[in-house]
Amino acid sequence: MTNRAGEAGPGTGNRTAIVAGATGLIGRELVRQLLEDDGCDRVIALVRRPTGSAHPKLEERPTDYERLGSGPGDDEGFGGADLFCALGTTIKKAGSQAQFRKVDLDYPLRLGEIGARAGARSYSLVSAMGANAKSGVFYNRVKGETEERLAALGPSAFYAFRPSLLLGERDEFRFGERAAAALAKPLSFVFTGPLANYKPIEAAAVAAAMIATARTGSPGRRVVENGEIAAIAASAKTHNR
């Protein structure tokens, strides 16, 4: 992708980050950590409605994903930016498979299309373990299709992160996740060797790994599985001390 004149490219300071799904579990962590990142001087959070958050580097941009890309100025700031997509829902919350596809496939794809046209620097997607476009499981199939279709857009750098069970405080209550999280720490010894990739992971660690990976600017498509996410996050934490 070719950066627009005057916008930061790989290896430079003054970078812009754009976060879709900025009020979700991982999205909130992305925004928080990016605002603390000296290598990023502008954070555009795509939100359904203003949250009231204030920070010198933060721009909250009310976004209707149904219309995203159809209006003039929708791509403002995208040239040379690092895109972070943490959009996602559940079939229960979405209400139907069609609506689930809209949130987890159509919306991330629209974001990627804008980025491709504008010349975004990178695109980092929160995907899921088991993502496979040929899977017999609907959820995994949609996640896999999203990865493939975004990669096909040809971003110079596309990173798909596949975390295991996410730990952190969500806005909505999910009994299954809450129960699994309660068991995660006392049973942490189970997640060793071949099972290490299935160990539950903090949303903050996923966000840290996404930011660290985007910072490298390594071109091409990269799938980052759960175990590697944890390792990248740990390395980034050590480096930032």
Automatic annotation (TrEMBL):
It is found in: Membrane. GO terms for cellular component: membrane. Residues 18-61 form the NAD-dependent epimerase/dehydratase domain. InterPro entries: Epimerase_deHydtase, NAD(P)-bd_dom_sf. SUPFAM superfamilies: NAD(P)-binding Rossmann-fold domains. It comes from the Bacteria. Its main location: membrane. Keywords: Membrane. It holds the Pfam family Epimerase. PANTHER family: OXIDOREDUCTASE HTATIP2 (PTHR14097:SF7). This is Oxidoreductase.
